[in-house]
């Protein structure tokens, strides 16, 4: 009788879309162990992982039910939880006083402390030390942020039952290869809640491709070695196309005569041509001659509600590290503050009101219905969404701001 009642309750929970945690966790844990043996172990073995490494990696490991975007076996697909990474918040919050000042002050100390390593990596890769410091500071607070998660628990959970299971299964096997190579003891391999490793926050596959030995000891230790961390970040950026000798970008003033809809990496032109349109550096200086000859792109991460920039291809190399305009902008800006003593951006981030991702997604779907390419209705105001808003505003006789605002939701029919 009890068994039938329990089965009925579970069936009703699934039918009503109740949270996955309501299911029989013990049964799912058993399925997880079966999946490790039947799916992960054969793949790992084929890629040179020993049985001893495999068993050490998963010794005592259970599923982490607190991770986001989980879809346990037998459950209906779950709606992904709201993304809480800072990259997806309002622009002004990302550049908070504490974040900027902390990353700058500690970065200057690290620049002095690791000057030799930074200079060596810059000679080898062409990536300036200040840029490496900007990435390092943003990813792990120069190694001062505690990284507490068990990498095999995180990757195992996400590989077994997440909305991106195939991707995380690949990363899990890559992590086993790292352990097999002896880079770190499997029980000591720590990661973020998303499975990113060490001070540079590399996913395991990126570790295998870009982790570098910066101190000459024969190992690539991104957990405890600052020299290896510096070399690894420089190697990653160089192999993603960093152009030695070019900057990442410049804060500029964009006159009203230049439409904010010209933003985007697919609308580049010579920086000299942008200047001919009336765009000027806020510093009052001319663009460096070698930069003026090169390609540049308009970047307005808050539309007309915040600072504007002409960025170089190197800006988009930084975005390869983290696909966020604000992330790449923060890294470049902090690097400039560390090396050149620069202050805040001249323009201030405007108050765009409290918008949820769901609000922006409604606007995106409405714009898509009107034929605009917003880059997907994901609730994130990327450059395609920003300029689509501007084009809609211009077409309807409105001043183009190129950024979502609460009143647009009803104006667009949302």
TrEMBL record:
Top-level taxonomic group: Bacteria
Pfam families: SLT_2 (PF13406)
Signal peptide: 1-22
Keywords on record: Signal
Transglycosylase SLT domain residues: 31-336
BP term (GO), one: peptidoglycan catabolic process
GO molecular function, one term: peptidoglycan lytic transglycosylase activity
Entries under InterPro entries matching the protein: Lysozyme-like_dom_sf, MltB-like, MltB_2, PGBD-like_sf, SLT_2
Protein name: Transglycosylase, putative
Organism: Salipiger bermudensis (strain DSM 26914 / JCM 13377 / KCTC 12554 / HTCC2601)
């Amino acid at each position: 009788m009890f068994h039938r009642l329990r089965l009925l309750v579970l069936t009703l929970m699934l039918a009503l879309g109740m949270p996955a945690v309501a299911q029989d966790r013990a049964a799912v844990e058993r399925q997880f162990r079966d999946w490790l043996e039947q799916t992960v172990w054969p793949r790992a073995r084929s890629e040179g992982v020993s049985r001893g490494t495999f068993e050490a990696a998963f010794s005592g490991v259970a599923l982490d039910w607190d991770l986001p975007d989980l879809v346990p076996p037998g459950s209906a697909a779950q709606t992904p939880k709201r993304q809480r990474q800072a990259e997806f918040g309002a622009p002004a919050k990302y550049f908070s006083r504490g974040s900027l000042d902390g990353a700058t002050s500690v970065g200057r100390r690290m620049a002095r402390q690791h000057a030799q390593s930074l200079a060596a990596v810059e000679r080898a890769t062409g990536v300036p030390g200040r840029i490496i410091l900007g990435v390092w500071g943003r990813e792990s607070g120069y190694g001062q942020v505690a990284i507490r998660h068990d990498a095999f628990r995180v990757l195992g959970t996400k590989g077994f039952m997440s909305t991106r299971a195939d991707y995380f299964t690949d990363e899990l096997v890559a992590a086993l290869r790292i352990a097999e190579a002896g880079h770190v003891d499997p029980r000591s391999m720590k990661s973020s809640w998303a499975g990113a490793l060490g001070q540079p926050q590399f996913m395991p596959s990126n570790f295998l491709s870009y982790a570098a030995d910066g101190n000459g000891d024969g190992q690539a230790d991104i957990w405890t070695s600052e020299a290896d961390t510096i070399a690894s970040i420089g190697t990653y950026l160089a192999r993603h196309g960093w152009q030695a000798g070019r900057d990442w970008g410049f804060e500029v003033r964009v006159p009203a005569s230049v439409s904010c809809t010209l933003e985007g990496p697919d609308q580049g032109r010579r920086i000299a041509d942008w200047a001919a349109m009336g765009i000027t550096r806020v510093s009052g200086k001319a663009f460096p001659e070698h930069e003026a000859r090169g390609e540049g792109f308009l970047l307005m991460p808050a539309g007309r509600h915040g600072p504007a920039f002409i960025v170089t291809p190197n800006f988009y190399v930084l975005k390869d590290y983290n696909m966020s305009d604000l992330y790449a902008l923060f890294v470049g800006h902090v690097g400039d503050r560390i090396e050149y003593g620069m202050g805040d951006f001249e323009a201030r981030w405007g108050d765009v009101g409290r918008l949820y991702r769901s609000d922006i997604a409604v606007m995106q779907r409405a714009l898509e219905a009107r034929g605009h390419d917003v880059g997907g209705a994901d609730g994130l105001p990327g450059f395609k969404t920003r300029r689509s808003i501007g084009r809609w505003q211009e077409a309807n006789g409105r001043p183009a701001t190129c950024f979502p605002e609460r009143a647009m939701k009803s104006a667009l029919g949302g």
